[in-house]
Amino acid sequence: MRSHQYQTQKSMNACRGRNIMLFNLKESNRNELQERIADDVSKISEILSPANVSREQIVKVLRLGKKSNKNRPTKVVLDSQDIALKVLKNKTAVSGATNEKISIFEDRTVLQRTYLNNVRDQLQQRKEAGEHNIAIKYNNEIPTIFKTSQKN
Fold this sequence. Notes:
By secondary structure, this protein is of the alpha+beta class. It folds into two domains: 95 residues, RRM (RNA recognition motif) domain (Alpha-Beta Plaits, 2-Layer Sandwich), CATH 3.30.70; 38 residues, no CATH class. The protein has five helices and six strands, in the order αβαββααβαββ. The strands form two sheets. Strands 2-3-1-4 form a four-stranded antiparallel sheet, with helices on one face. A two-stranded antiparallel sheet has the order 5-6. β5 and β6 form a beta hairpin. The longest helix is centred in the last third of the chain and has 19 residues. The model has no long low-confidence stretch (mean pLDDT 83).
């Protein structure tokens, strides 16, 4: 996928702007679906409280994938794109508010995830080839490899 395709994917999925993804959120061991959802909403509202996100601003919570012994990713639909951006901008404070190692990311399409993984692979290959002072930077919301300034 090229960068213009990545951007097209981004604009085509503007509806994802209200969504955030949480990883490593411990799953409830309750039997009833509604009880598990209520547990997730309660935990998520507690986790997002440092970003001033109230329980009422959480529209929907979904666990993705089949239930197994691993914690499934959690998709959280918020009231507005502004709230999602506020959470993403403050994700270190938000994810640090709990003892669990929870990761927070934007909701990306499959093509966007594939593109980002390819860029990460390229970065790793270039570093292994001896190239230093390079990193991934988002240029117009597109992940690209760039040279960093050398620190002494």
